[in-house]
Design a protein that fits this description.
Length: 148
């Protein structure tokens, strides 16, 4: 590395720690992938939603997200929150402030109407909403996740 490059790096607003953390995040795959529409979604006899994991490769790693649009106009996100077989969270994507559908923004959900922000797992970060996104019960196996 040239002396000028070293000087430029030293003047950079990024600290060595920030750079190392960024490399670790990329290396370990903790950057969430953008939500995509789920495939392989069926309804069980008892009206629950079954998501085939083999079809939804986005859910193979932590931070993966798929969305499911329901017939009533609402949407659900299925988020991989841990490596364990049971490491999934299903969220209603309606903002708890006024019901507007939140959108993924990196590793968070953001309400486009009033700016409420939620963590990828649905926990409230900033209002005006006063509560977390609603969660649905999930049961998971190595091949499918059942929501409801």
């Amino acid at each position: 590395m040239s002396e000028q490059a070293k000087l430029d790096l030293a003047k950079s607003p990024l600290s060595r720690r920030a750079v190392l953390c960024g490399v670790a995040v990329i290396s370990f795959g903790f950057i969430p992938e953008a939500a995509i529409a789920a495939g392989g979604v069926t309804q069980t006899k008892d009206k629950k939603i079954r998501v085939d994991l083999k079809v939804n490769k986005n859910l193979a790693k932590v931070g993966g997200v798929v969305t499911i649009d329901l017939s009533d106009g609402s949407s659900i996100a299925l988020v991989r929150t841990a490596k364990a077989v049971t490491g999934f969270t299903a969220l209603n994507l309606s903002c708890t402030h006024q019901g507007i559908t939140v959108q993924q923004n990196g590793n968070a959900w953001l309400c486009p109407a009033h700016g409420s922000q939620y963590a990828l797992n649905g926990k409230l970060i900033n209002g005006p909403a006063r509560s977390a996104l609603m969660k649905y019960p999930v049961k998971a196996t190595s091949s499918a996740v059942i929501i409801g």
